[in-house]
């Protein structure tokens, strides 16, 4: 049953415009959610009580988010063509995510939607100072197994990917591994965001085993862990022979243990570390005036990393190239911490232009896309009104307006279907102008409503798209003998 639904979605992809195109994109598969943002004084420990920052409200706002969604949006801000691979519900939250992604410049053509899926959600609790705690409900993302990847996403990866990104956060590890293998088969770079430590992936998140985590990190070309996750991974893989906990050493150990082409490790607001097989650099972050929210800072860092790699056409080979790449990634991460949520805003774009004045950035989609749609709607309305005006006969129009204005009784409006809906709204508009009006369905005149009309006093207006609607013509023939004004 589930398999037939997935295959049906694949047929839908094949007919979509983006799926039929040839342009290569950075394709990311992972968490994509609606974030419910709350401000709290302190996140309470288990068994304790806490308070929201405001005594009058709990929910601050709803935003799109998620580890993979976030880094794709930041990459798109940096001019990278990006697309999301996902399973989503055909529900209000899913539609909101897809609409917002399109506004951010991220392609949604490879998202499989179905009424049997539900869209993922997160509840984000932000403390004073910007630190946050997150509760996640992965929903349909938890269904992205190896089989789901092969059926839904392998064709897109083979035909359209310039790079594949994924995560260890919400996607089952069997699906993560299959995504990385698909990237290998397609001959493109793969990026793995180790968003949670291996023990959390196995226990709390129930994504798979720590052995599967190790298999995944060895398969990825580029590994982006936080320091806590990196240290646990080194301990897991090196055992008692692990080196010291210095950041640079941890990153070098990961390159050696995992065979990574690049390890880019974050450490909160401290220096990030980039290492390849021959060099390691620590890169200081740019100055931050105020940390508003750390949600998505690591995701923005990865988005910046993708931007830097794409701009240079591949991975840096020397120390200076590593440092420049780290500076770009750090700037993206720092910009993210100075606004609420994990996706780019107008203010974060402005900050990036200060941090990286030579970098060309796209417009922030949530501003541009919505205003473009608004202006497009106004233009359509203007064209429709102009079209109506060009068809009007001034003499007949004057007679029509005069009849409504001098009517001493009731103006009846009538129609069927869509014309009936317009007639009903027309009656409401006339009533709001102080003209007594009433809507009668054209099908009801011969069922007793003919008696409502008073000859010599009332006016009846029929609306018909083609002018020959049977119910309107029949009712008009009955009324025409007794009415002075009938339109």
From TrEMBL:
- Listed GO MF terms: carbohydrate derivative binding; kinase activity
Where does the record place a coiled coil?
none
Q: Which residues form the SIS domain?
A: 400-487
Matches recorded under InterPro entries = Carboh/pur_kinase_PfkB_CS, PfkB_dom, Ribokinase-like, SIS_dom, SIS_dom_sf
Q: Which UniProt keywords apply?
A: Kinase, Transferase
One GO biological process term is: carbohydrate derivative metabolic process
Identification of the protein by name: Probable fructokinase-4
Organism of origin: Geodia barretti
């Amino acid at each position: 049953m589930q398999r037939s639904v997935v295959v049906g979605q694949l047929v839908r992809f094949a007919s979509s415009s983006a799926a039929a195109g040839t342009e290569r994109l950075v394709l990311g598969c992972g968490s994509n959610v609606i974030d419910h943002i709350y401000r709290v004084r302190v996140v309470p420990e288990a068994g304790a009580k806490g308070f929201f920052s405001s005594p009058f409200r709990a929910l601050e706002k709803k935003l799109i988010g998620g580890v993979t969604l976030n880094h794709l949006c930041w990459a798109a801000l940096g001019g990278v063509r990006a697309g999301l691979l996902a399973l989503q519900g055909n529900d209000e939250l899913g539609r909101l995510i897809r609409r917002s992604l399109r506004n951010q410049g991220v392609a949604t053509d490879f998202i499989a939607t179905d009424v049997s899926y539900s869209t993922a959600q997160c509840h984000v609790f932000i403390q004073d100072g910007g630190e946050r705690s997150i509760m996640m409900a992965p929903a349909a993302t938890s269904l992205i197994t190896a089989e789901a990847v092969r059926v839904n996403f392998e064709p897109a990866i083979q035909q359209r990917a310039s790079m594949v990104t994924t995560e260890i956060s919400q996607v089952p590890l069997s699906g993560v591994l299959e995504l990385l293998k698909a990237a290998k088969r397609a001959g493109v770079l793969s990026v793995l965001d180790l968003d949670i430590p291996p023990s959390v992936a196995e226990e709390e998140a129930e994504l798979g085993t720590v052995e599967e985590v190790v298999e995944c990190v060895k398969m990825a070309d580029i590994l982006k862990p936080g320091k806590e996750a990196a240290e646990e991974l080194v301990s897991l893989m090196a055992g008692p022979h692990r080196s010291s906990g210095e950041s640079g050493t941890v990153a070098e150990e990961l390159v050696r243990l995992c065979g990574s082409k690049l390890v880019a490790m974050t450490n909160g607001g401290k220096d990030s570390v980039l290492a390849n097989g021959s060099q390691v650099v620590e890169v200081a972050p740019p100055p931050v005036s105020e940390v508003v929210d750390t949600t998505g800072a690591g995701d923005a860092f990865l988005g910046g990393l993708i931007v830097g790699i794409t701009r240079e056409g591949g991975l840096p080979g020397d120390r200076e190239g590593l440092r420049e790449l780290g500076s770009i990634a750090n700037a993206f991460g720092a910009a993210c911490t100075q606004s609420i949520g994990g996706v780019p805003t107008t203010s974060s774009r402005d900050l990036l232009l200060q941090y990286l004045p030579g970098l060309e950035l796209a417009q922030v989609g949530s501003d541009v896309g919505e205003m473009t749609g608004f202006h497009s709607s106004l233009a359509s309305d203007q064209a429709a009104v102009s079209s109506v005006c060009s068809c009007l006969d001034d003499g007949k129009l004057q007679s029509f307006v005069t009849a409504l204005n001098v009517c001493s009784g009731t103006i009846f409006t009538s129609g069927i279907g869509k014309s009936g809906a317009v007639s009903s709204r027309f009656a409401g508009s006339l009533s709001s102008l102080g003209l007594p009006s009433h809507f009668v369905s054209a099908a009801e005149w011969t069922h007793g409503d003919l008696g409502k009309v008073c000859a010599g006093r009332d006016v009846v207006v029929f609306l018909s798209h083609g002018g020959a609607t049977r119910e309107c013509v029949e009712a008009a023939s009955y009324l025409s003998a007794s009415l002075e004004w009938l339109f």
